[in-house]
UniProtKB/TrEMBL annotation, chain A:
Pathway(s) the chain acts in: Amino-acid biosynthesis; L-tryptophan biosynthesis; L-tryptophan from chorismate: step 5/5
Recorded family membership: Belongs to the TrpB family.
Keyword Lyase: yes
Name assigned to this protein: Tryptophan synthase beta chain
Gene, per the UniProt record: trpB
Catalytic activity: (1S,2R)-1-C-(indol-3-yl)glycerol 3-phosphate + L-serine = D-glyceraldehyde 3-phosphate + L-tryptophan + H2O
InterPro entries xrefs: Trp_synth_b_CS, Trp_synth_beta, Trp_synth_beta/beta-like, TrpB-like_PALP, TrpB-like_PALP_sf
Amino acid sequence: MNAPTAKPNDYAAYPDANGRFGDYGGRYVPETLMPLVHELDAAYSAAKADPAFQAELSGLLTHYVGRPSPLYLAERLTAHFGGAKIYLKREELNHTGSHKINNCIGQILLARRMGKTRIIAETGAGQHGVASATVCAKYGLPCVVYMGAVDVERQKPNVFRMNLLGARVEAVTSGSATLKDAMNEALRDWVTNVHDTYYLIGTAAGMHPYPAMVRDFQSVIGRETKAQVLEAEGRLPDAVVACVGGGSNAIGMFHPFLNDESVKLIGVEAAGEGMETGRHAAAINGGRPGVLHGNMTYLLQDPEGQITEAHSISAGLDYPGIGPEHSWLHDVGRATYLTATDLESLEAFKLLAELEGILPAIESAHAIARLGDVARDVGKDGIVVLNLSGRGDKDVATVAAHLGMAI
Amino acid sequence: MTKARIDARFAALKAENRAAFVAYVMAGDPDYDRGLEILKGLPAAGADLIEVGFPFSDPMAEGPPIQRAAQRALASGMTLNKTLAMIAEFRKGDQTTPIILMGYANPLVNRGFAAFAQDAAAAGADGLIVVDIPPEEADPLADALDAEGLSLLLLSTPTSDDARLKVIARRTSGFAYYVSVAGVTGVKEADAATVAPHVARVRAAGGLPVCVGFGIKTPERAEAVARVADGVVVGSALVEEIAASLAMNETVTTRVLSKVESLAKAVRLARVASPTV
Ligand SMILES: Cc1ncc(COP(=O)(O)O)c(C=O)c1O
């Protein structure tokens, strides 16, 4: 897996039929799940090609989610950084407050098509849990959300929102009690309830077809952005920037631009307390390839191949892996992965609030933390689009605590 | 050479007309020394084959008992190298009891399949089960194990249809392992009557002896399943004995081995007592 990967002619043609992006991806799941994984793959392929499915999806994205989300020229932020013109793709204005709903709407339609009667999901920040609970409420399906006990504590408002939406939140205490453990428990539930249960994975990771499917559902972000920038500026942007947890908002932004090689694709991983401390969540910048949760990808692990705990102020980025397509885009050099620490992200959180009147999710704030560097690098005549993946209301308690204030 | 050890054991069991009792333990649970003591005691207590788990931080198909066993083993400093060292130590006193390693992909990916296969063969292991490597992903690992004469045992499950059972059989040697419940280890219980037709399907697909595991905890269940299968695997119930003896400050080895004795005895009696499935 360390052989240099050849540069492909068509970046958008992946994964292959086995779910591989180069060496990454695949289907590393117990045999009990394998027939279901094939069933899901077939069902998704059929749905993807079915105009009725696409029409229903598109109608819901318009009338339920509120798409297209605006592309907003952030003038004061642009002036502040003194570099390229900065546009924000306003995913935080979507129903439920983040990009997660784009994927949930797609997958709930698929689950219904497949005749599944029970939905399970994992969540970190709780945004995917809220989005899952939302679509389950809309379609009257029971929903169980697995959430690390640590995250239940730091994202209380979202736990309550999920409960209001009728979902059951299971606090997971095993391991580090964060997102990776929530995903383990969700997989254990799935393997136990194979016949009626649909696993609604919240990011572009896991076993094939999830990384490709979630990417497809999130690619509406990049498609809209492309059209909106062309409309506003008559040309493509020079760079797009997004934070990376599992990688769904980033790949959704990147994918429609993969073959536009003039557009730099920049992901920002969580550096936690600092890369040098080892307490971070940056799988590409601080990890090695391995197998976890059904796919081969960059992972935080010790020299024995045991997965190590991720550390980030942001529950949504606190995951030791990354979607396999990002691992591949990194290896082939099509995308660049930077990092931002907890403190830099808190500063960025305040900056956006003060300059633009927008509270970003602490996840999205990681991307904002690198935005100045990117904007100056691109230069004054350039255009940069930042994917504002979510809103920060859920994070005010965390931010207050770091500022030494009680609310 | 090593595949031969599994084949020889099943040939001997067939001659005795009885099913195998297969004991699962987690290497290094609760620590290296006591883990080795348990391992050494298993054959005399009635284990015909032994599955040795190597711990992984994120065991997605395990229920709480084996999750906790892995945590205990990791806390005691257990590694893949030490697991193989433990097997080499065991082999000094026992050249006939087959040992099957069982675990998850990442420690093996981390080591490299070829290097792992060489070291495992040198240590005296006979086969390998990797829970998160289904047939679709098995070829590179199976090739590496083949080169060292080690068996890969791909799992069959209640959700595997006959076509999949054939694919599984193609890259499985030694014996076939049937996971009797859809679920994680140590939670649901297997029922012999439900299991029987599946065992027949698995046997028909590959012609190998079929051992049943994942849902067997008591001597009564073990006895019932031993009437319909070629072997019975018990894991969670054994590691729970370790947890219980630690909690009560008892001698771990004695307690685990006496559980093994009662289960092995039940399996031995199964075909002598009247077959009421
Ligand atoms: C607002 C927001 N942005 C980003 C993420 C990270 O996920 P992903 O990398 O899949 O976009 C999350 C996850 O919870 C989130 O809530």
